[in-house]
Design a protein that fits this description.
Number of strands: 13
Family: Belongs to the PC-esterase family. TBL subfamily.
Keywords: Golgi apparatus, Membrane, Signal-anchor, Transferase, Transmembrane, Transmembrane helix
GO molecular function: xylan O-acetyltransferase activity
Shape: globular
Number of helices: 9
Low-confidence stretches: 20-37
Helix content: 25-40%
Membrane topology: Single-pass type II membrane protein
Main location: Golgi
Distance between the termini: 79 Å
Largest sheet: 7 strands, mixed
């Protein structure tokens, strides 16, 4: 009799009900019990009643400031967003230090509102946004997709899912995000033999814009253009279809080594001129300044260099020099010239100058955490791209502010 009572007590309908309820509570609140690694701030549920986001750009320069602690971050992780490029999926591949996630950007003189995915989608209803550039443009786009995943997932409308060009559509908001792969912004041809060390020479036609993206720009409300890192690859330079120079080349080509600084400046000049020459351009063009290439320490990218820092630097601890400074200066000069030309045509080019903020974040790169430790892959430590989630998420804080202020 006592045994029968004990069985009913342990396995009867009431105990089973409460046991199931307890399991459900644990699973639905897994982030608070440490069951999913990095917790995600429970923010999305409160978005509908949040204070409307307004632009603070008339009060301060959002591109100058410091990084300050942020206990609430991050707002997504590799388990809540499945749209992270594998090589930037630092949490999935076991990055042990997670303090790099707990920072936000504070401009001097104001607070920068966090990117609000619901309000952004409402603001962008019926519009379209294009990212143009290389893998850092893709890095930026995927940051936006992950931030928006707190509210909605898009449908992949890409013509060919295996290519670098992408199209994502948010049906409920009639909002489209596109990616145009154009790492040099001008017409280019890949080398026949490149390899993991990227020793093959690209052919760059420095007086011909890449029509694969330029011709599509009139369709978009917002176009964000960027390019920098790929100019560091060995290249042959053509103008008027004639070989006139090269970078990282030997005498075998019979032309001078004009260096990568020549191609980077020329490409930006031609790309911005092509934008200004578009008769049917209806949207706003935003130029993003370069993301630092100088965060490798104790060696170059192909000589064991790495980025193992675990927290941000302060503004007075960083300075731009070398390749970063050359690229930044040339890009800024070409932008100012194009901005003046656009103004004379009654248009406006916008500048997203996130370089100073990102100079302070050598801790935000994947380093070796873009693949499993025992995986046999020919990859170098990555100190160019940014972990997702990570510091790059502030690019969307800045972008939303710029669009609101426009």
């Amino acid at each position: 009799m006592k045994l029968h009572w004990l069985v009913r007590f342990l396995f009867g309908p009431v105990p089973v009900y409460f046991s199931a309820l307890a399991i459900l509570i644990v699973l639905t609140n897994a982030q608070y019990f440490g069951l999913v690694g990095v917790g995600v701030a429970p923010r999305a549920a409160k978005l509908a009643s949040s204070t409307p986001v307004v632009s603070v750009m008339k009060y301060c320069d959002i591109f100058r400031g410091e990084w300050v602690p942020d206990a609430e971050a991050p707002y997504y992780n590799h388990k809540t967003c499945h749209m992270i490029q594998e090589h930037q999926n630092c949490l999935k591949y076991g990055r042990p230090d997670l303090g790099f996630l707990k920072w936000r950007w504070r401009p001097s003189g104001c607070e920068l509102p966090r990117f609000d995915p619901l309000q952004f989608l409402q603001f962008a209803r019926g519009k379209s946004l294009a990212f143009v550039g290389d893998s850092l443009a893709r890095n930026h786009m995927q940051s936006m997709l992950c931030l928006l995943s707190q509210v909605a997932y898009p449908k992949d409308m890409s013509a060919n899912p295996t290519t670098q060009n992408k199209v994502y559509h948010y049906r409920a908001y009639n909002f489209t995000i596109s990616m145009f792969w154009s790492p040099f912004l001008v017409r280019s041809r890949a080398p026949e033999n490149d390899g993991p060390a990227h020793l093959g020479h690209w052919s760059l036609y420095l007086d011909e814009p890449d029509e694969s993206w330029v011709s599509q720009m009139p369709r978009f409300d917002w176009v964000l253009v960027s390019a920098a890192n790929w100019f560091s690859r060995p290249s042959l330079f053509y103008e008027k279809r004639r070989l006139i120079g090269c970078s990282f080349c030997s005498r075998q080509y019979g032309v001078p080594d004009l260096t990568l600084y020549y191609s980077q400046r020329r490409a930006w000049r031609v790309a911005l001129r092509a934008i200004n020459d578009l008769d049917q351009l209806r949207g706003r063009v935003i130029v993003r300044m370069l993301s630092p290439m100088s965060h490798f320490e104790n060696g170059t990218w192909d000589q064991g260099g790495d980025c193992r820092r675990t927290q941000p630097m302060r503004a007075n601890e960083t300075s731009m020099e070398g390749r970063d400074l050359h690229f930044y200066t040339a890009q800024m000069e070409e932008f100012r010239t194009a901005e003046k030309d656009a103004r004379e045509k009654g248009r406006r080019l916008m500048l997203m100058d996130a370089t100073a903020a990102m100079m302070m974040r050598p801790d935000g790169h994947p380093s070796r955490y873009g693949h499993w430790p025992n995986e046999k892959v020919q990859l170098y430590n990555d100190c160019i791209h940014w972990c997702l989630p990570g510091p790059i998420d502030i690019w969307n804080d800045m972008l939303f502010q710029m669009l609101l202020a426009d």
